[in-house]
Amino acid sequence: MSGSDPSGLPFGQQLPRIRVRPPGPRSRQLAARLRRVESRNVTYVSDTFPVFWQRAHGANVEDADGNVYLDLSGAFGVASAGHTPVAVTDAVTAQVSLLVHGMGDIHPPALKVDLLERLARLAPWRSARAVLASSGSEAVEIALKTALLATGRTGVLAFEGSYHGLTLGALAVTHREDFRAPFRERLFPGVRFLPFPGGVGGTPVHEAIHAVSAALSGGDDGPPVGAILVEPVQGRGGVRVPPPGFLSHVADLAREHGALVVCDEIFTGLGRTGRMFAFEHEGIQPDLFCVGKALGGGMPLSACLGPRRVMDAWPESAGEALQTSTFLGHPLSCAAALAFLDTLEREGLVRRAREVGAALLAGLRADLADHPAVTDVRGRGLLIGVELATGPDLRPGPEVAEALLRRGVILLPAGPDGRVLELAPPLTISEDQVAFAREILRAEITRA
Questions:
Q1: If you ran DSSP here, which 8-state letter would residue 38 be given?
Q2: Span 222-239, mean pLDDT?
Q3: Dihedral sign for Cα atoms in the order 366, 427, 58, 100
């Protein structure tokens, strides 16, 4: 990859290099053009935001003005193996000259079989089945449909702070009121949101477990529960890590009452938390789980997986699939996913997420201990949240994130009011980049 900085490091391993104050003139010009052609609800545009990306590799992003950034967002957690990982780009390049598009549920691409077999080997069940899709929201929709077919029950339990996507079925189980309110009349009413015991001021674990038990017992007059949908670590909700034992208690209660446990691993899965799947930290075996984001190595791809005993609730196709899409099993995405999974294994990225994440978490806790601007530093693997205190003399999370952007660091605010700075960098981030991240976060967060 071309583009070395004065230190001689290749693009991908560099520290930030800001040539013009972001957003530079080219990004501003692109923002003005975008506003003329895109629905105004999509991209937030202000005098200080956004920058427009033109290339990326490893943990570096270069914007349209030539500024080089350290990406601590992993592009929503997608770039787990780094941006444009060589194995993935080689696989896509080779595939594009062979087959760009197939007929996923009619005359499938051969690569679809290879990927499904690979995913089945990763799953915790002896006999796994999957449905492929393109986005995380679609995978969640598939899981909800599967649970209804398997249990015959319409009720769903989800959790406060949850984020599962914005299509109508996924939006119904997403807790964010700002996303839900405009479409409330179209959302399925049989979803109940229960307390999630994680983060500062979270519900005590025994109260959260009691709420799950009461809802499963029908004490709130809701429809019978067929599925409990949970993120093993809430990502967009503010990197909320549940206390030990919570998920296993939820799983025990679900099975006692005949409901399915559905783990949304779209953000947390495939190594992000230092295990292949985050549910492994609790030693539970879900009935269904969803993966996405990192799976395609940068290409759009997701999946819902379950054991045969659950997935066979779907009827056998008689020529028309009940769940499909035009781009199901897209050859380029399948090729990218297989290369990504190879990279994950070959480079030991799951272990690296565990080890580097533990060191970074400990370092940030030491750096920010007892500082009045910080209420908590938490995480699992390379999914870490720094929760900022709120008050009239303290800067809110979005303001801190924009200040970091001006200094060449990309990260996202998460949680209520964006008060949690969310770190989800590529699992390939270098030691020098981690050290820089610690230092600039300490400096910017503690700045008055």
A1: S
A2: 96
A3: negative
Using DSSP's 3-state secondary structure scheme, residue 436 falls into helix
Cis peptide before 124 (omega within 30 of 0): no
Q: How confident is the model at residue 448 (pLDDT cuts 50, 70, 90)?
A: low
Distance (Å, whole) CA 383 – CA 77: 9
Q: What is the pLDDT of residues 18-70, one digit of tens each?
A: 999 999 999 999 999 999 999 999 999 999 999 999 999 999 999 999 999 99
The dihedral through the CA atoms of 252, 152, 329, 300 has a sign that is negative
Q: What is the pLDDT of residues 306-328, one digit of tens each?
A: 999 999 999 999 999 999 999 99
- Is 426:351 a contact under the CB 8 Å cutoff? no
Do the beta carbons of residue 194 and residue 229 sit within 8 Å? no
Among 341, 321, 335, 338, CA closest to 104: 321
The single-letter DSSP state of residue 15 is: P
List the alpha helices (DSSP H) in 5-64: 25-37
Which residues are CB-neighbours of 219 under 8 A, at least 6 positions away? none
The CB-side HSE value for 76 (13 A sphere, CA atoms) comes to: 13
The Cα–Cα gap between 334 and 109 comes to 9
From the CB of residue 13, how many other CB atoms can be counted at a distance below 10 Å? 21
Alpha-carbon gap, residue 300 to 333, rounded angstroms: 6
Residue-wise pLDDT for 242-273, tens only, equals 999 999 999 999 999 999 999 999 999 999 99
Q: Which residues contact 33 (CB under 8 A, 6 or more apart)?
A: none
Give the model's pLDDT for residue 419: 96
